[in-house]
């Protein structure tokens, strides 16, 4: 754990605690404040149903957790990336994705990540601290508010920003419950992505909430996966597949595997065959999401060229595995896992197109939103 101090912020406080904060006020004030924060998605200062003096007190006593450092919109205006500063100074990112038929937010669960996957900018930066429940919920509130300003409705949340959600289980579970109950987003529209922390997958299996699970696989044999995803040494593929099988049997839901395609590393015919064999070993079909690797400062190998990404997909289909090439977005705004926070110094809002790779169209790993969407 880091020594950074964390304090309770606006969305860390539940309804009972709001009530305590309003001791001495008429009882209906709790309802007004609750609606203001969770339905209007407003700042206390904007809640004109409340007396001015109370608004000022709430502003001071219920501080926001997230300070916007950068808000960047991509060229097409369908992706908005935020770099937020947290109390204590660490930074996280949140990405809002506006599809024609749905709106999804990609949230962070930790500042940094301790899992050390070499190809990931967040992993390269290391771990700073856990996010509190309120810091996770507030990302969804901010995205939801932005979507509303754009006349859209946010309905999906994917835990695919910075951090490993199953390494911050208590706060992530609590945030999911709050997002579901207090913000009204359906559990089937919420997706947890994990690098493969088996104990967390087991607890998710036992949990009654029907959230979606995405497992970042990237390699289907232990020697390659040990290298790409170091936590594989603790939870090797047979354990991971065992936990995935139990999840599928218990939940009867589709599981997604994420596979970031890296040139010459995990895009060979043998990789496709090994992946297909793993998928076939499961009791229910898994869906594979292929993401061309997004370039990061600390990893020299390139993403697989797009033509070969499609060939890999076709090969998996031939082998009987459902696979989708993710139409990633946002190269022009560094909207990829960990990139904006890692890319210091941060430039102000830029709408200019940046092209430093010929092969990768754009870069948000937006996988699993289909899972969330299809099963709704
Ligand atoms: N820690 C979790 C969730 C956050 S990472 C996990 O690993 O699943 C979200 C997704 O982005 C994961 O599938 C991860 O493997 C992928 N990712 C990380 N770095 C990437 C990169 N450089 N290019 C493409 N995808 C990447
Ligand atoms: Fe952490 Fe996921 Fe990045 Fe691995 S890929 S370092 S688990 S955020």
UniProtKB/TrEMBL annotation:
- What keywords are annotated for this sequence in UniProt? 4Fe-4S, Cytoplasm, Iron, Iron-sulfur, Metal-binding, Methyltransferase, rRNA processing, S-adenosyl-L-methionine, Transferase
- Residue stretches making up the Radical SAM core domain: 99-332
Cofactor list = [4Fe-4S] cluster
| Gene Ontology CC terms, in alphabetical order | cytoplasm
Locate the region Disordered: 346-376
| Cellular compartment(s) | Cytoplasm
Which residue ranges have biased composition labelled Basic and acidic residues?
Answer: 367-376
**InterPro entries given in the database record:** Aldolase_TIM, Methyltransferase_A, RNA_MTrfase_RlmN, rRNA_lsu_MTrfase_RlmN/Cfr, rSAM, rSAM_sf
GO annotation, biological process:
rRNA base methylation; tRNA methylation
One GO MF term on file is: metal ion binding
Q: Where does this protein chiefly localize? A: cytoplasm
Q: Name one Pfam family in it.
A: Radical_SAM
Q: Which HAMAP family does this entry report, sorted A to Z?
A: RNA_methyltr_RlmN
What NCBIfam families is this protein classified in? rRNA_mod_RlmN
Name-wise, this protein is Unannotated protein
Q: Which organism is it from?
A: freshwater metagenome
